[in-house]
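Record now logged for everyone:
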Amino acid sequence: MQGPGVNLAEHERGVFERAGWAHFDNEAGTVMDEIYRRADAFLFGRRTYEHFADTWGTWDDPGDSPIWTALNTQPKYVASTTLTDPRWTSTTILANSLGAAVRELKAKPGRELQVHGSGALFRWLLDNNLVDEITLFTFPVIVGQGTRLFPDIGRDRSLELVSARATPSGVTIQVYRPS
């Protein structure tokens, strides 16, 4: 799993040498914009939060980016026991009782609590039955290394396909719900 461009934090840790392969075409970019417009809040793991804070959190408002607008105006929650001083506005650290905190956030009225990236957090949420829907962007490239989205071991899970589409450059976008 990887976001668009080069994730320097993973590259510097030696986790992933072949960064920069996830390229969005216009249609995939439009879908991603639509996803971020639906967000009422964001939940991040620490590493993804730090990467987003260092990029999206430091850029000036381009004036036409639904992603920038959502990330810089909606509340952000970070699952971390090591982060103590978040530098991005509207950030709350969830250091204790993560399951209870996430259930409380999900119970709030509104649109969506979204997780982007945050592989370890996603796997934990999935394992604790706290995932309502998964949107996967699959890029037409074989990389041969990198971080897995789904765990190597664990119980089998059934997913219900909600929708699927392919963009002109071959990016497939699938939406699933755990069943």
User: Anything to note?
Assistant: The chain has six helices and seven strands. The longest strand covers residues 159-166. The CA atoms of residues 53 and 69 lie 13 Å apart. The domain at 8-130 is CATH 3.40.430.10 (Dihydrofolate Reductase, subunit A).
